[in-house]
Amino acid sequence: MTKVWDMSPSVVVQDGLRRLRGTGQVYRLSLIILGILAAIGVVALVIRPILSGWGDRQPWTYVAVAFGYLMATVASAPCVSAATRLVRGHWRRPINRIAEIWAIGTIVPAMLFLLLVATLPNTHGRPTVWFGWWGAPWLWDILLIWGLTFAGYAFLYVSSIPDFAIARDQLPEGRGKWLVKLAGDFYGTENQWRVIDRAQSYLGALYVVMYVGTMTVITADFIMSLIPGYKSAIFPAYMVVSGFGGGVAVVMVTATFMRLWGGADNYLGREQFFALGKLQLAFGLLWFYFMWTDFVIPWYGRMPWEILQLKLLYFHSYVWFFVTAFLLCFIGPLFFLMWTKVRRSRIGPAIVSTGVLIGLLADRIRLFSAAFTDKDITQDRLHTLPATYHPGVLDALILIGAIAGAIALVMLAFRMIPVPSIWEVTAGMRLRVNKIYHNVEVMVIGKPDF
To answer: Is residue 326 included in any domain, yes or no?
Structure first.
């Protein structure tokens, strides 16, 4: 049982405020290292793709990889909070803020996208999903990406308002002037709580819907339309589902770091890791299902261009990236998380989720490298196998810098927003009570009216 349920609300409040007041040496050192890596990534971004111009897509390959990977991990993490809120699961209370706070990092793929979208040609003379829409693909892709980013920030802000109000009222006068503005006029009236609850549900649902739509369109524009003859109704769904699995993995790994080094051991117990482990297993199985259904059609079709497509994506050019993704995104979750003892452990699901994150990176390298290699995208199908793209040092620095930048932003947010959420945990404490049932003490969990 998670230890926090035996604590008093006042202890939870003081513990949450303690993490806002000060940070340790390891935190500061980690933030400095991440900032240096992000700065190096920016320099590499200028030297490699920006100075090469936007006429040739190939130098932008690993900018696309970084963008695709962050969209499959950082941008999908808030969906975990949104989904568990909608089903009103109580185990999710300590991990909701861990999922939501990754919305801060979505600004990094959004900024990368502003640079990357200029590499897309117009829709004339090549197959796309736009059918001659005005401003396509640039205008609508930008609106989707930035709409998703703003929805994530709004979702995080609304869920944090009660915690801002707690910090405003508890911290010494003069130390939290910015909290007064962020908390606004929230003082915990019944009507205000109803508004917060409804706003969280609506914004969370909006974020999930926008994530699905954004990933679908981005997949069509940045992968399928850049590989001649790649026609699939399954592949966008594969990208969405693999992104959901990446979001669960990010939350799992972050929760493990918070438990081991973030002082949140009392909040994160087997209850949370067991539930996240089940989600990770489910999305691992869905990863294989959508991968297989997308793969099997050209495999049995065996037309010449379909054989080239299979060689490009699976068997020749990027075979080892596919093997890595297959082992870590499907085989790992299946053969480890199928065991209840592993799912109930605190470290087992975290190791599997770390593997999922590595596998997703290999998968995005495979897909975006295949899409951004030199070829004539106005053709209706592949006629020759494009050359394999081999990354250089600058490509690796761009990828590392983008990931480091997103993590650094989230770590900075830890100094302003309590993680785990103070009000979520204390609300859960008030809905639980221990009672004697026959000769056994059991926990009874209530359901709120709103």
So the answer is: no
